[in-house]
């Protein structure tokens, strides 16, 4: 019974949001059991390939049960790796679940269990505490060389050219955006995470979008980029465009995160312009490429709209179910310019192509979606902590 427990600890140290990110990054399948002395019965979250598919708390199941767990602070967890044969009752992406769960706690919709109110923000990773991005077990088949870096070494230098990749074999690195206003630490990455932009093959020279430093001793595996480049060039144009658009999303999020860390240009608030394009009921399961005009992705927090992304021609609107990388439709609102024109995409066609990829390329794509998810989580934490001083209004 005890042998398949692969991770256990306290939610007071590792909040549920961070725990779900970690299990998600590793693509874990199994059951997360949460126990608290404040509750008579334990709760369960069922994960398949890193995504919560169902949850149970007594007679409460699905999304309602899962949301409630965001309010559990003085609780212990155990993750048991095993097959999960449940229909996916929870349809939202991991990122949407985390963002919504935290928002519902902030808004007081989900009560905090086992803690007095003044402590309620403490256990979540604070604005100065960097989230950590991990990855699945490393597949050594595509590792052609190994490199060692010591604490503080600069592994990647922002704005330099470079289009090779590493996978982290051991240790932790920190991603830092350098600007004229100062250095903005964005997040940390550890075992299994990839370093390097996935779309770098497309350009003559990939300009590094951030600097990366070793935190302690780090061992990196150099990824066989020729192998990846060959596979990448065999992808359909549509699939390549999806990856390019996801990479753009990640870079824009890193811009927003940087501005928040450096406390420059507070994120735009107020009612967005343009017309509403996508919401929970309408277009829920649809995906589109923009063929003309622009789309603006906003999240609503504490009655304010925060402008996260500007999407243009060739970009994707909507969520590809297995990719887990979009904020809309559940956690974000999309507004569009008057001249917008879009072309629908069939998710099943994209999925077929994805399923045929090598596990390495799949891992690299998942790494990008995890980066989007973790960076968004950090943005929300920064906004929340900045917003706490506004709460009095
Ligand atoms: N927000 C982010 N989340 C995760 N990794 C990032 C983020 N921003 C930059 N990086 C990493 O930092 C690297 C800098 O060089 P590249 O642009 O080639 O690829 C980038 C990514 O690997």
UniProtKB/TrEMBL annotation:
CDD domains: CAP_ED. It holds the Pfam family cNMP_binding. This is CRP-like cAMP-binding protein. It comes from Desulfosalsimonas propionicica. It comes from the Bacteria. Gene3D superfamilies: Jelly Rolls. Residues 139-249, 252-371 form the Cyclic nucleotide-binding domain. InterPro entries: cNMP-bd_dom (IPR000595), cNMP-bd_dom_sf (IPR018490), PatA-like_N (IPR025497), RmlC-like_jellyroll (IPR014710). PANTHER family: DOMAIN GTPASE-ACTIVATING PROTEIN, PUTATIVE-RELATED-RELATED (PTHR36304), DUF4388 DOMAIN-CONTAINING PROTEIN (PTHR36304:SF4). SUPFAM superfamilies: cAMP-binding domain-like.
């Amino acid at each position: 019974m005890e042998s398949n427990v692969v991770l256990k600890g306290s939610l007071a140290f590792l909040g549920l949001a961070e725990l779900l990110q970690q299990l998600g990054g590793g693509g874990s399948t199994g059951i997360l059991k949460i126990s608290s002395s404040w509750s008579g019965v334990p709760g369960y979250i069922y994960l398949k390939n890193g995504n919560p598919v169902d949850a149970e708390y007594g007679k409460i199941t699905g999304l309602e049960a899962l949301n409630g767990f965001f309010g559990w602070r003085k609780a212990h967890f155990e993750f048991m790796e095993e097959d999960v044969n449940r229909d996916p009752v929870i349809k939202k992406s991991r990122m949407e679940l985390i963002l919504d769960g935290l928002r519902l706690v902030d808004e007081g919709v989900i009560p905090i269990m086992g803690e007095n109110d003044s402590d309620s923000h403490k256990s979540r990773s604070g604005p100065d505490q960097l989230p950590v991005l991990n990855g699945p077990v490393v597949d050594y088949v595509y590792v052609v060389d190994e490199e060692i870096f010591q604490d503080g070494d600069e592994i990647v230098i922002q704005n330099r050219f470079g289009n090779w990749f590493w996978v982290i074999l051991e240790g932790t690195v920190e991603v830092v955006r350098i600007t004229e206003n100062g250095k903005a630490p964005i997040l940390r990455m550890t075992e299994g995470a990839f370093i390097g932009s996935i779309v770098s093959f497309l350009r003559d020279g990939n300009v590094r979008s951030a600097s990366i430093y070793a935190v302690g001793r780090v061992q990196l595996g150099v990824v066989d980029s020729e192998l990846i480049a060959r596979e990448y060039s065999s992808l359909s144009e549509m699939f390549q465009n999806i990856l390019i658009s996801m990479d753009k999303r990640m870079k824009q999020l890193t811009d927003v995160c940087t501005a928040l860390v450096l406390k420059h240009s507070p994120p735009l608030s107020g009612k967005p312009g343009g017309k509403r394009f996508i919401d929970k009921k309408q277009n829920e399961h649809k995906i589109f490429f923009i063929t003309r005009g622009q789309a603006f992705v906003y999240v609503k927090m504490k009655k304010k709209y925060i402008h996260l992304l500007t999407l243009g021609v060739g970009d994707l609107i909507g969520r590809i179910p297995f990719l887990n990388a979009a904020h809309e439709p559940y956690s974000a609102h999309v507004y569009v310019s008057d001249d917008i024109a879009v072309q629908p995409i069939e998710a099943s066609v994209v999925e077929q192509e994805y399923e045929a990829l090598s596990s390495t390329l799949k891992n690299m794509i998942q790494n990008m979606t995890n980066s989007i998810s973790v960076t968004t989580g950090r943005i929300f934490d920064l906004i929340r902590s900045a917003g706490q001083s506004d709460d009095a209004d």
